[in-house]
Amino acid sequence: MAEGEWHETGRIHAGGASVSALSFDSFEELLWVGDDQGHVTSYIFQPESEQINSYTSRNVVAGPCRQLLAHDSAIVCLGQNSIASMHRRGSMKWTLSSDNFTDLRSICLTTSFELVAAGHQNTMSVVNIGRGSVVKNFECQGDVNVLKKSRLLCCGMKDGTVQFRDPKTLKIESTISAHSGGIVDVDVAGNLLITCGFSIRLGQSVSDPFVKVYDMRTMRSLAPIAFPNGPSHLMFHPRLASTAVILSNNGAMHISDVGNPVGIAGFYHVAFEDGCSSMGMSSSGEIMAFGDSTGTVQLWTSKGDVKVNPYSRVTEVVSLPDYVPVRMTGDDESTPLSSVGMPYYTEHLLSAYWPSTRTYVVGRRSPQVPPEILRNAKYTDFVGYAPNTGLYRRNQVYSWATRGDAPQAPKFRSEQHREKLFGRGKQKEEVGSPMSKGPGNMHQIPEIYKKVEIKYSRFGVEDFDFGYYNKTQFAGLETHITNSYCNALLQVLFFTEELRTVCKGHVMTDCRREFCLLCELGFLFRMLEDAQGTNCQATNFLRALSTLPQASGLGLLEAAHLAPGPTVAYGSLIQTFIRFILEHLHQESNVAEPVAGKGGEADGNSSAWPSSKDGLSVIQQLYALHMTSNSACQGCGSITSKPIAPFVLDLVYPKKTSSNLKPSFVEVAEASIRRENVTKAWCDKCREYQLTVQTRILQEMPQELTINCAIQNEDNLEFWIDESKPWLPSSFAVVIEEGSVKVRAVQEDTEFESEADNVFLYSLQGVVSEVIDNKTNHLVSIVQVEEKQWALFNDFRVDLVDQTEAQLCAKWKIPSILSYKLLSKDRTLDLSGMPQEANVKRLIKDMTVVNKRKFKPSAVPMVITEIPKEPGYLIAIDAEFVALTKDEIEIRSDGSKSMVRPSQLGLARVSVLRGQGINKGVPFIDDYVVTSEPIVDFLTEYSGIKPDDLDPNISKRTLVPLKSAYKKLRLLVDLGCKFIGHGLSKDFRIINIFVPPAQIIDTVDLFYSRVKQRFFRKLGLKFLAWHLLKEEIQQNTHDSIEDARTALNLYYKYLELQQNEQFKSTLDDLYDIGNVFDGFSVMRTQNV
């Protein structure tokens, strides 16, 4: 033990409330005290004055403060239903609440920037300390009383067991049974674990008179320590690893050597008035603090001159400003105050940091009441009234202040059409403030960065004006789709030209995987290319992502997180996603043989992908950093090497120092590339675990360099925020020389010698950033879309911006992923083995996943001579859908309803008919789509789909996977076919395919009158068939072949009417009939 005997040196009266938590600060000379009313007070030790003074004090959490945790940048306080973080100077950083926080009991640091919170609840949560957000939630088997961490995370459970979990994955590695009646306290030091708790005797719970000791290497119990008084608090001495302090509620304290439990190093008695409630010891091991239920804190020491920490940093204290007398420039009262003048400020005033959510318009000043009214006024209490003099109109209110050019939400298309026809106002063309054309504001979120939401009218999502948010030729991606947080990164991948070529080429192969992300990316990239500014959806890609167990295991699916809001760390989530997606694309592109599937035989184009001469996949050629990893054993000196090829470079920031000199980006990047780690690893030569130094030697740089910013706390963020100039360079060079690497900054206006084989010059291509908002966080990307042209992609909102917008960072705009493109090398991918066009044989083959087909198919596949040779071939199409989710409806307080999110529909059947030739009207595709997702409604009344139709075991239909049906439609679009149908825009939207408008002939638009009185009415297929074709369709249910054939006949009827110059009169007659008989249904007009 330390010299001298332990003795009481003073007492602190923290208040009348019970002291529920004590913690000595590990970084400064402070003691933190929390009580059972949520109040936290800090006390500063000042050796020069030999006094302990109050430093800060404030209410932090509601209810009792259950634990205090001193972190490098903040103090974390645990409440029953919340976790709060505060600066040491007393101001709050954040408060985190969650539906999962029902009864928190303990928190514990797992890394330098994350902690684990658990309690008597079903979940165990990982919290990012810098942001105050829940990173992940894990299922917790049992109620947790105490958390402590050494090599493993030790969880003292309510049922008396101790669970040992992996600190990274939180998976249970081992479990021991310590006390039958429950755990009270645990502590760990190295490989030693000590526990105290209760035992069950004769059906009663009594304090266990032994402190259990365990060796965590073997998970075996050692000799226990007898403590007859009943232990309630345990703590290892921070300087003496095997020495433990054991305390009971009545004040009996033993200081024992765990290695020699028989001998007692010290026996003391702490005089409590009403029992011990908390205990703590400083990191120096020189001070102990004991709190009781009366609000008193006792301080004990074993020497005279004591310190809380061996090396503490200076605590920030308030300094009083020097008094400067105000001198007025005048001797009389007529001297204006403005003559004093104001200083010239070089920094932002405090008013610049005031959040926009705290400011509001106070309104106009009330006009002055005329004296003649006041003279005749009578008052009742404080309310005055007077007769009207006849000069004022009754029941008038004061006018509101004009809103000027404030941003407005877009009006629905139906409203715009109505106002246009009746000559009303015109909708504004621009959204947001002028700053949308330049660098973002450093303190407030500009309009172009704010989260955009889709609003739904009674006409559905088709009535929403997406064009209001996008005036460019670059397509945005819609929200309100599960896992749509990926939108920002998908835009960066799309504008990576080589990857776009690879994905589009993979679509041409005969890939038989039902859920292939490489295929889905190829389909998505084709849509974004063809859309030319029209909004698109990543529905099929995100649906395929949700089926992958690896994505679920990594927590990439939004269902595994909290509801979207300010507590979801999307920055960390998207960084995990980029590592996963590149590794998964590498595995999919590296297959050597076509993958067998149920959809039929291969149709000619092998899915084997061309590799380089070194056997590298195309993804490795594009993204991999080729390195050699060396591990040097510190015991025997042996070195083992192995090649590695990570796809992403994670930035590692240096620790904050007292120096004001901030390292540059290239210095941080260089240190991140050649970083070394010291860890324990198995040595084959020593035959035991030894300290091992791991180093990485860079061999080759990739064509596309992807960097994870890995901003975990405010210290990391300080590197990025610089209001004078961007910290992120637009270009830099990497030089590899004799096993070492150097990263150099390159100015845009200077030439750099990059022809050497060891020099790699990179230029910024795109940035994915997290926008921190009070309501909900989200991701945006800024991408170089063309030469010297940049665009901001905020889901379906797209704005052209400057390059500096991508380089700037603010507290509300935190970069997550950087994409750099190699400029200095002439590298090309060898794609000679890739098919250049899709194989048309899939149109002449009949494929199905039905186990035993004993029925005649309803479609007759094309023969090779029917395959369209020239664009313009007519085909008729109709699709049927099933509901995968239900509508989300919000019911307001007045009883009105609002659509929050419509039901998600999935393709169930698609029928395509020949539109010309001798077989006109004969279907060549009639595919039913099998799905692995649960179906909440088959919509049989509208779709004609029955449950048996989509069951492969009993179905009598041609069942195919979604990708098989999609590939056929994609091929028909690429062949230039013209699609004829009724209401095709909604069908193509749900199928998630973009068809150029020139290839669509929609009978809804052909038979549509734009006369002012009738603009709101579009005619149904059943109504048109009855009156124009004299046919009755959809008698009992819908049939897609019948609907497609009817649309085809209506098109030819339209051509006939146009040729005979009868179309206009016929259309007017149709609307007249519908209006006269109060509706456009067949039943109401069949007698006309």
From TrEMBL:
It is found in: Cytoplasm. The gene is PAN2. The keyword RNA-binding does not apply. Its cofactor is a divalent metal cation. Belongs to the peptidase C19 family. PAN2 subfamily. The linker, or PAN3 interaction domain (PID), between the WD40 repeats and the pseudo-UCH domain mediates interaction with PAN3. Contains a pseudo-UCH domain. This ubiquitin C-terminal hydrolase (UCH)-like or ubiquitin specific protease (USP)-like domain is predicted to be catalytically inactive because it lacks the active site catalytic triad characteristic of thiol proteases, with residues at the equivalent structural positions that are incompatible with catalysis, and it cannot bind ubiquitin. It functions as a structural scaffold for intra- and intermolecular interactions in the complex. Positively regulated by the regulatory subunit PAN3. Pfam families: PAN2_N, RNase_T, UCH_1. Catalytic subunit of the poly(A)-nuclease (PAN) deadenylation complex, one of two cytoplasmic mRNA deadenylases involved in mRNA turnover. PAN specifically shortens poly(A) tails of RNA and the activity is stimulated by poly(A)-binding protein PAB1. PAN deadenylation is followed by rapid degradation of the shortened mRNA tails by the CCR4-NOT complex. Deadenylated mRNAs are then degraded by two alternative mechanisms, namely exosome-mediated 3'-5' exonucleolytic degradation, or deadenlyation-dependent mRNA decaping and subsequent 5'-3' exonucleolytic degradation by XRN1. GO terms for molecular function: metal ion binding; nucleic acid binding; poly(A)-specific ribonuclease activity. Binds 2 metal cations per subunit in the catalytic exonuclease domain. It catalyses: Exonucleolytic cleavage of poly(A) to 5'-AMP. The keyword Nuclease applies. Residues 475-827 form the USP domain. Keywords: Cytoplasm, Exonuclease, Hydrolase, Metal-binding, mRNA processing, Nuclease, WD repeat. It is an enzyme of class 3 (hydrolase). One of its GO terms (biological process) is mRNA processing. This is PAN2-PAN3 deadenylation complex catalytic subunit PAN2. GO terms for cellular component: P-body; PAN complex. Its main location: cytoplasm.
